Amino acid sequence: MPDKAVCFQKGNIEDLKSKLAELLENQEEVEALRKGAREYICEKYNWDKVTEKTLQIYEK
């Protein structure tokens, strides 16, 4: 999901600080990430699909 989020090295405070500073300086990138993440999340966690799959499991 690299086009929907910004990752930093686990436990690396300086890397996190650097990534956050970059985002603060680039609102266009933040907006692009926001849009991509929103679409991804809405598709992945679509309640109609979740409900349908849950009912299929219960019917088995």
Task: Give me the oligomer status.
Answer: single chain
The gyration radius over C-alpha positions equals 17 Å
Structural class: mainly alpha
Number of helices: 3
Poorly predicted runs: none
SSE order: HHH
Largest sheet: none
Content of β-strand? under 5%
Number of strands: 0
Ends apart, CA distance between termini: 33 Å
Give the averaged pLDDT, no decimals. 90
Helix content: over 70%
Shape: elongated
What attributes characterize this protein structure?
60 residues; mainly alpha; elongated
Outline of the structure:
This protein is 73% helix and 0% strand. The protein is built from three helices and no strands.
